[in-house]
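Margin note from the TA: students keep mixing up input and output lines. Inputs are the sequences; the output is the structure of the whole complex. Example:
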Amino acid sequence: MNNKKMSNTNMKNNIITLKNISKIFETEELETHALSDINLTINQGDYVSISGPSGCGKSTLLSIMGLLDMPSSGEYFIEGAKVSELSLDDAAEMRNSKIGFIFQSFNLIDELSVFDNVALPLRYHHSKPTPQTIKDRVTECLTMVGLSHRCSHKPNQLSGGQQQRVAIARALVAKPAILLVDEPTGNLDSKSGDQVMDVLSELNKNGTTICMVTHDPRYADMASTQVQLLDGMILQVPQAQIAV
Ligand SMILES: Nc1ncnc2c1ncn2[C@@H]1O[C@H](COP(=O)(O)OP(=O)(O)OP(=O)(O)O)[C@@H](O)[C@H]1O
Ligand SMILES: [Mg+2]
């Protein structure tokens, strides 16, 4: 009823909320405060970049967002669900259905064709899609990254940039709520890197929510929200993105 009074931010679907997230790694002789008191909100359709010097906590933050690691303290919500209250099985299910990962090293399986690499998340999907559904969706995703003509190739028959685009198609195939991307161009020459970034920008224009770690200021500039990390703390983030 009061829709007109709601701000744009409130009307958008919230994908990720981090509240006072900290992460301490403890080894026998050392305690590393990798993240300290991180507050961040990512809404549907956002394109967030995370930048900062080596060791400042970027990958740790992405691992926590992607349910690959747990925070030492703080609260974390994915689409409103409190992650710490999920069972291990539910957390794994959440990771498989809501998160798409893209890493610096493409992490493709060399023995499988491009098609089968992209199809893999669907073959283990809880919705148990039919072979035809899998075929249609894999073809759709390979078309989105401009590689439908390479579906029978093996990853090692492709250039680095093409392999990263296959990894993007694989990350997209199960329609995740968010793509988490860690240094996608780190292993690529600048031309291939630019092509990969163009694909990510295009996906975001079409509605995909992206959170991307990058060292490169040119690529960080492509994001609509730029987060700077230093020593595990957020240096600057636009007011609208801070969780309340
Ligand atoms: N499993 C771990 N055990 C102990 N310390 C860790 C672990 N993982 C990360 N760290 C430490 O936490 C800090 C943050 O590491 P992280 O990998 O998040 O940095 P980063 O910003 O991604 O760096 P880079 O740009 O080099 O990839 C570093 O000091 C690192 O040594
Ligand atoms: Mg890293």
